[in-house]
Amino acid sequence: MDRFKTILNIASKQTNLGFGLVALLTAGGEQIFSSVAFKCPCNELNFLYGLVFLLVPALALLLLGYILSKKMWILFTGIWHNRAKLCCWKNLATTCTAFFQISSTALVAPSSWFAVALLNGNYYECAMTGTNVSVYNQYLCKDMNSELDCAKKLPMLPCDKRNEELLRTLRSQSQILGWLVITSIMLSSLLIICLARCNSPISYQQLKFWRAYAQEESELMDLYTNKHAKDLAERNLKSFFNQMEPANITTPSNKDWEKISLLYKFSTKDHFYSTLHRYVETNQEGDGIRMVSVRSNESTDNPAVLHFVDGGMVSAPPSL
């Protein structure tokens, strides 16, 4: 188990390795799913059944990628209460750019599923033998003696393995589409990365440092928030059970939490690497870091987003 955690830790720090691990697990899951759960009905439901197995798991993986993304919740937590800021074109463009980056990461698993499913060919064979497009059915049966009988028997083709020629034709079409999907994904990823690097305001080595800093800050943020939450919970429990005056525990205010949870865009003028870095530097230079005690009279009128925190849906967000 410890070795497995070590592998996951390395994969989380190496983006390309993490993407490769996700793609590999998705491909393995598709193979198991195809051999165990998929059974083509070989009737008029072929098209719908094959299409559902081809697309719905990919959609589920996409939604799961959004749900598990911390950046997704950093982007959308509290956005309804700050919707006036989205009216600004600059803020709206930054939000759309961040959502595009989140989507590109979430698309790794569904695109892997879709490509591997096409290379396997089982879903495509089942779906296309149930299509009602007469032109396509005539194309498949053009070399048969009786095209009419062939078109009627197409739904039974995945269950009847005697006509290997038609099955090979369908499988070859599916595999061609699969390789085209893989090539298009790789080409579009290369173009997007090239455009992003060409427009980068910093050098390659500084970009590596920025990523390393963001990763370390995110991990330490989780550690510090968990420790601080534990200390606060222990303080409250001791005060309750021992019926004693609680000790003062200093914690950031709501506005301070909001400041370090905003999206951050690197600027060569400020030379900050995150919202937390900018907050610490600017507050040290100004009036000092403003802290409040949990026993202070700060307003407790918190937004409904705290229900997500209470439900354990969102962990402490790392700064971008």
Notes on the protein architecture:
- The chain is mainly alpha-helical.
- It is elongated.
- The model is unreliable at 1-8 and 286-320 (pLDDT under 50).
- 66% of the residues lie in helices and 2% in strands.
- The chain contains 14 helices and 2 strands.
- Strands 1-2 form a two-stranded antiparallel sheet.
- Helix 2 (15-36) crosses helix 6 and helix 3 (46-67) packs across helix 7.
- The longest helix has 39 residues, at 204-242.
- The protein has 3 domains: 1-37, no CATH class; 42-199, no CATH class; 204-278, no CATH class.
Q: Spatial order of the strands in the main sheet?
A: 1-2
Strand content: under 5%
Relative helix content: 55-70%
C-alpha end-to-end distance: 30 Å
Overall structural class, as computed from helix and strand content, comes to mainly alpha
Please, how many domains? 3
SSE pattern, N- to C-terminal: HHHHHHHHHHHEHHEH
User: Which residues form runs of ≥5 with pLDDT under 50?
Assistant: 1-8, 286-320
**Helix count from the secondary structure assignment:** 14
Measured on Cα atoms, how large is the radius of gyration? 27 Å
**What is the 3D form?**
elongated
Instruction: Give the beta-strand count.
Output: 2
Mean pLDDT across every amino acid position: 78
Largest sheet: 2 strands, antiparallel
Membrane topology: Multi-pass membrane protein
GO molecular function: monoatomic cation channel activity
GO biological process, one term: ATP export
GO cellular component, one term: plasma membrane
Quickly describe the structure.
It is built from 14 helices and two strands. α1 crosses α2 (15-36), α3 crosses α7 (122-128) and α6 (108-120) packs antiparallel against α10 (164-198).
